[in-house]
Amino acid sequence: MLVLADPTLLRNALYIDGAWERPPGTDELPVTNPATGAELARLPQASREDTIEAIEAAQSAFPAWAALPARERSKLLKAWHDLIVANVDDLARILTAEQGKPLPEARGEILYGAAFFEWYAEEAKRVYGETIPAPKADQRLIVLRQPIGVCAAITPWNFPMAMIPRKAAPALAAGCTMVLKPASATPLSALALAELADRAGIPGGVFNVVPGRAGIVGDELATNPIVRKLTFTGSTEVGRELMAKASGTIKKISLELGGNAPVLVFDDADVGVAVQGALASKFRNMGQTCVCANRIYAQAGIYDEFVERFAEAVAALKVGDGFDESVQQGPLIDEAAVLKTEEHLRDAVARGARIVTGGGRHSLGGTYFQPTVVAGAIGDMLVAREETFGPLAPVFRFETEEEAVRMANDTEYGLAAYFFTRDNARIWRVGEALEFGVIGINTGITSFEGAPFGGLKASGIGREGSHLGIDEFLEIKYMCVAEICPVKVSEK
Ligand code: NAP
Q1: For residue 488, what is the DSSP state?
Q2: 234 C-alpha to center of ligand 1: Å?
């Protein structure tokens, strides 16, 4: 049983128009702990009608929320932030229970997510317009930035406490209202955030949560004409489908999709820094992050030393139930995730890779997997082409900078990339040549709410975070005012 200081944070209902609803007769969604298989809760699944009810609630709430002075919206977002921070321990227990990540990582994610509310509470006050010098003396040209309206958000299971704030904070700061469909594996985090929104005083209908079947709830959100903006984080495959569906009603969209992040370790790198950076990037959330190092390329001169030291660090990672504070690697989210990691490992070994550490399922059973490093990876392996999304790190060898950049860019994805070097000229050359939206140089961790996050190519459209992130939820309106009495210029 999940023990919380405040058990009322554990909600098992839909949150629509500021009220908790358990529509009768729905088939229920069981939420389980991936570490133990224990059932944590049973939730009603929103029907199409429930989803429409939430969209209409968001529509009704929109005019008053948009009209509220930015300073007032800001106060409410700050109150939401403060409540998240005050409840971080309970929220971390909910997150670890339904997602599996170790408690310290869960706390880190929650505080990172909360920071978006604080950041955008300030940005709400800076949605500035513009004036443009007019072509005629009796005209004035003005540009307004206005909230787009009802927004729909669909989020993944790997970082629920971060992905939801990354969307809700800029949307609400801009004056938009939102209907959220959280991932079916991790709806309890979303509902706990909604409970805190309610306590913070966010008015009913401004933020609604409808867990349910992707094919029903997701479909309605993507096609309903009231929804003016769809913001999605998840796989590229589903992103493509949603983009096509949203085209029917010409919605504004932003997509944060899959990645296939390369890590380049040059001969001139500090190998210790590179090992720690690759470890942090690859093994956060057991390798289940969109910005995870998927392909590690080490230059010939330091290849053997890097593989040895990296494998040593990986072998030392402690695997176990995330509720044990000393654990660094929890279980994978489900059996499908284990099967994909196994398939990538099998394929790599069949094509000549050598297992240096790890190498398969963990003796703890269930969905635990040994943190694994393979050496001798080559370009035609699955690990080079697809996102593994598990704790398997393949190390490739390269000879020249040109070859490394070419191999790094040889993917349809373009989310995150990392490289390690002590050469300043190379930092600029390689940084500018890599076709990725987020680049870590001599670090494996780049996340910060004040920086723009997002991908190129098949990794997505749009940016989250920073002052740029709020633009995704704003429309631009140009007003041309004519017949203005021009200022008289006195005659000499
Ligand atoms: P997913 O299968 O694409 O699911 C993401 C969300 O979309 C879930 O809420 C899911 O609902 C919903 N969904 C699935 N099929 C749908 C459909 N046909 N119509 C509407 N909604 C649908 O991805 P995931 O497995 O949860 O997450 C892992 C993926 O997300 C990875 O590829 C990862 O790289 C990517 N990701 C990207 C970022 C980024 O910022 N770029 C961040 C995190 C994760 P159900 O749960 O009910 O199926």
Answers
A1: P
A2: 3
pLDDT at 485: 81
232-247 burial code (b ≥16 CB/10 A, e <16)? bbbebebbebbbebbe
Indicate which residue's Cα is closest to atom 22 of ligand 1: 214
Tokens 């309605």 sit on residue = 220
Distance CA 357, CA 282 (A): 14
342, 383 Cβ separation under 8 angstroms: no
C-alpha 204/C-alpha 178 separation (Å) is 11
| β 227-233/456-457 pair status | unpaired
C-alpha 74/C-alpha 349 separation (Å) is 54
* Residue position matching structure tokens 């992130």: 469
**Chain centroid offset of residue 27 CA:** 29
User: Which pLDDT belongs to residue 491?
Assistant: 60
Q: Which two tokens stand for residue 395?
A: 């190390």
Side chain identity at residue 138, one-letter code: D
Paired sense of beta strands 227-233 and 207-209, if any: unpaired
* Residue 176 designated active-site: no
d(CA 439, CA 443): 9
Pocket of ligand 1 (CB under 6 A): 154-159, 163, 181, 183-185, 214-215, 218-219, 233-235, 238, 241-242, 256-259, 290, 387, 415, 455, 460
Which residues, 6 or more positions from 97, have their beta carbon under 8 angstroms from its beta carbon? 2, 33, 40, 188, 323
Residue 73 — pLDDT band, cuts 50, 70, 90? very high
Q: Which residue has the tokens 């390689």?
A: 430
Averaged confidence pLDDT in the chain: 97
Q: Render pLDDT for 12-71 as a digit per residue (tens, 0 to 9).
A: 999 999 999 999 888 899 999 999 999 999 999 999 999 999 999 999 999 999 999 999
* CB-CB neighbours of 186 under 10 Å: 26
User: Relative to the CA of 256, which ligand 1 atom is closest?
Assistant: 41
- The total number of residues shown for the chain amounts to 492
**Is 492 a residue whose pLDDT tops 80?**
no
Is 464 designated active site? Answer: no
Q: Which residues pair with 20 in a beta bridge?
A: 15
Place of tokens 């704790």: 391
